[in-house]
Every structure is written in structure tokens, then in C-alpha cells.
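pinned: reference chain
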Amino acid sequence: MADIETKAPAKTEEKPVEQAAMPPAWRPFENLRHEVDRLFDEFGRGSWRLPSRNLFEPFWRHSATAPAVDIVEREKDYQITAELPGMEEKDVELKVANGVMSIKGEKKEEKEEKEKDYYLSERRYGAFQRSFSLPRGVDADKIEAGFKKGVLTVTLPKRPEAIKSERKIEVKAG
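pinned: its C-alpha cells
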């Protein structure tokens, strides 16, 4: 015949955890939770700000596959360096229009192997675009770019009036 299964009701008791008994150092997840709550509260109030519009702020958008760039301000120019491994200068396009400089690139790689007992064909494609607002004082007509061993270097010279003149002022006793 059929086995009949019977279950006796189980009685469970919930005991409140006494938090006062545990020192704060032993509650790392509670501290983490408070920090995460604080961040979300700040985000909701709008204090989570985008970076202020400063030199070379990314304009529009850039994809997750876009290369990171290093930007350096020097005395007479700005220099942007981007590592583009596996690319050649013919794969990179640099444009300046309306105070915005855009770097575009596309990488295409195809690999094909034919052997006696197998055939392998791989294709990889990837494109990116990064755009930057040019700072005031850049002479857009004199921008130069070079490409060597997978590294793009863009030099943006400053106009003479944008170059800060510096002089030392003697401090006298008084």
C-alpha cells in the first residue's frame, strides 16, 4: 500500500541577536552596509556629480572598448597618448571640428589555418571612438600626431597668448 508520511509540527524560536554584545569591529558587513546606503543616499540627492567641464572632458560618449588615454599639460602644449596595440597608423583616424577632437580606430584581424585534419578560421573586429573638448588656447591648425609601435601621440600646441609667463618675485624683509 501507499506509505503515508506524517510530519509533526516543528516549533522554532527566534532569538534576537544582541548587537550590543558584539563590538563594532566584529560587524564588518554592517559597516559596509552603512557605507553603501550612504553612497546611494548621496546619489539620490544629486551630490553624485559628473566631473566638472575641464580640459579634455570626454565629449558625448565612448565605448567600453575605447582605449584609455594619458593627457599631460606641458608648458607649451598638451600631449595625449593612447596605447593601441595591434593597430597601425592606417587604422587610426584623427579629426578636429568645432572645438572637438575625435580619435577613431578599427581593428580587423583574420586568422586562417588549414591542416590535414582540421580547418581553423577566426575573425576579430573592434572599433572605438573617443572625443575630447579642446581647451581654450589650443592652436588647432598646428596639432600633430605620430604613431610608433602601437602608441598614438597627439601634440596640441598652445597659442602664444595661452602660454603662462612666469617670473619670480623677490621677497624683501620689511
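why pinned: The chain has two domains: 18-49, 69-162. Residues 46-64 have pLDDT under 50 and may be disordered.
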